[in-house]
Amino acid sequence: MAEIDLGNLMAFDPHHQEEVVKEALEQGTKLVQAVADALFSLPSTQDPDGPIVKLPAPTTKLPRSKPLPKPRPPTKWEVFAQKKGIQKHNKEKLVFDEQTGTWKRRYGYDRVNDDNDVPIIEAKATDEPGTDPFAERRKEKKSKVEKQEKNRLHNLKQAAKVGALPSHIQLAATALPITGTQSMHKKVSKDELQNVAGMAATSTASGGKFDKKLPGEKPLKHEKKYRKFLPAAEGSGMGALEKQQNEQILNKLMSKNSHEILNVEKAVNMYNEKKEKKQRKRGGNSSDFKPNKKSFKKTPYKGASNKGKSK
Amino acid sequence: MMRIKTPTKRRVKRELDKRAPKLVETGKKTLILHGTKTSSVLNTLLTEIYHLKKDDSVKYSRRNDNVRPFESGGETSLEFFSLKTDCSLFVYGSHSKKRPNNLVIGRTYDHHIYDLVELGVENFKSMGSFSYDKKLAPQIGSKPFFAFIGEGFESVEELKHLKEVLLDLFHGQVATNLNLAGLDRVYVCTALSSNKIFFTHCALRLKKSGTVVPRMELVEVGPSMDMVVRRHRLPDDSLRKEAMKTAPELKKKKEKNVVKDAIQGKLGKIYMPNQQAEFTDTKFVHKPKGAKREWREAKMMQAEVAANKHTGKKLKIDSE
């Protein structure tokens, strides 16, 4: 490599950086030319942007960045359909609705033959009295949806076991609710916590005026009560709102205490007494066996005497 | 209890689908990040690598104290960044007294480190130090040529590994269709010794040569540097096998009985059963009307027997 001049005790290395670069570029040009020779001899198709060549598959294999996607296991229905030889047919999305004479979706919103569109259900002899057929239908539909959701979850779990869950779906574990009805607590956000802290601060006698503020605690967004005032002038619309509100309150009170205003026992007693007296009076008048004593004496105020007796 | 969680926004779903593993991968994204300390050389180098791969890379600008790819425990946050940015290649620069101008290029598989190469950068020349006709400047995302010069890339294990890593880092998107007018860049790597290579990036000038193939001319545009391989870690054999898998669906089945010929084109072999010259079916037996019943029946019987004889299939090779 190095040139040596023993007479001058000198050594010289011609492979300087620039030489290296020059050599590299020369060699590189040769190699690229070789690649180009092969590349330009490939059959090409003309495109407005330039000739397009179809490249063969690369021979130098490079590693993948992610493992191969796993095939999804068949769902329970797919297994069943396979067993029974049921084939999938693509149905048309739109169906002609004879009732309305229009084309409607087969499924989904505003669909054909929707149960919700039927306003009247004919009663049958087998119907139990006291049941709402509409409510029953709604319940049935809901249970169907729930069943489907359960099946879907089962199939997804099966897929998750193999590791073939679709990329956009996650199966999140929810904590078991104690009573079976409560859903899991949501994670409380920062803003919600701030609001709650603010509300708690105002619950002192001074409305949180003299409380020590924590570092980073913000002042309340709305310090006072939310109040709404109705228009002072009377009129129609908004003007009559105050009157309406008062009436509403009054009605509520009346309806609440209505059974106290009418004393049923007392009213029944009064009614019975009145009836008895009337009967007695009529019986006295109509009897032919007893001499009518009072017929001789004419009472000037019959109504008044009656009134007195009833009391 | 389980709950099915799906994205509420379509954009999120699209993004998740983009990140999902695919049968055929088209390209890898690159994460570019700094270590505890970086020299000015490394700073410019990392920026320029980012410029070279601008269409599919993410550059972090903060210092990362807890990223040490070769040490155990130093890869956790790196793997997290890889997961977060969906990058499966990373370029990490650090500068210390022991290892000045240190560049670590690594790959990940399933967001875990697959292999690593550590390089020392010497004689660095940035893009700015080259003067050339700016019309030649390569376009972002164009498919590059590679030229690996030297025996070392074949015989020395370190350089062989480095070659694969550099190819993976700079080869861009996997393309099946290539526009010949868009060829505008070359990466030239020359093995100088058993652990040193010279790396440079050149623009291509296509000159008319009178033939279909134009004459290639390289114009150095930078960055260019010497790379000294320091440490390197190859992947496990099992991991390598796993990562090199191709989808079984994509493997072509061997086509039987079809031969392609340069002159005659596509040739096929057809297998046929023996042709039967006699009447084989009772349906088509000639039934003369006037013949006596006994004769007719006897003839039918004869035909049936003949048909049964020929049902055993015989193959005869017939080349077309």
Automatic annotation (TrEMBL), chain A:
GO terms for cellular component: nucleolus; preribosome, large subunit precursor. Its main location: nucleus. Residues 134-150, 209-220 have a biased composition (Basic and acidic residues). Keywords: Nucleus, Ribosome biogenesis. InterPro entries: Ribosom_reg (IPR007023). GO terms for biological process: endonucleolytic cleavage in ITS1 to separate SSU-rRNA from 5.8S rRNA and LSU-rRNA from tricistronic rRNA transcript (SSU-rRNA, 5.8S rRNA, LSU-rRNA); ribosomal large subunit biogenesis. The keyword Zinc-finger does not apply. It is found in: Nucleus. Residues 199-208 have a biased composition (Low complexity). Transmembrane segments: none annotated. Residues 42-75, 122-150, 199-243, 265-311 are annotated as: Disordered. Belongs to the RRS1 family. Involved in ribosomal large subunit assembly. This is Ribosome biogenesis regulatory protein. It comes from Buddleja alternifolia.
From TrEMBL, chain B:
One of its GO terms (molecular function) is rRNA binding. Its main location: nucleus. Residues 28-238 form the Brix domain. One of its GO terms (cellular component) is nucleolus. Pfam families: Brix. It comes from Buddleja alternifolia. GO terms for biological process: maturation of LSU-rRNA from tricistronic rRNA transcript (SSU-rRNA, 5.8S rRNA, LSU-rRNA); ribosomal large subunit assembly. This is Ribosome production factor 2 homolog. Keywords: Nucleus. It is found in: Nucleus, Nucleolus. The keyword Nucleus applies. Transmembrane segments: none annotated. Belongs to the RPF2 family.
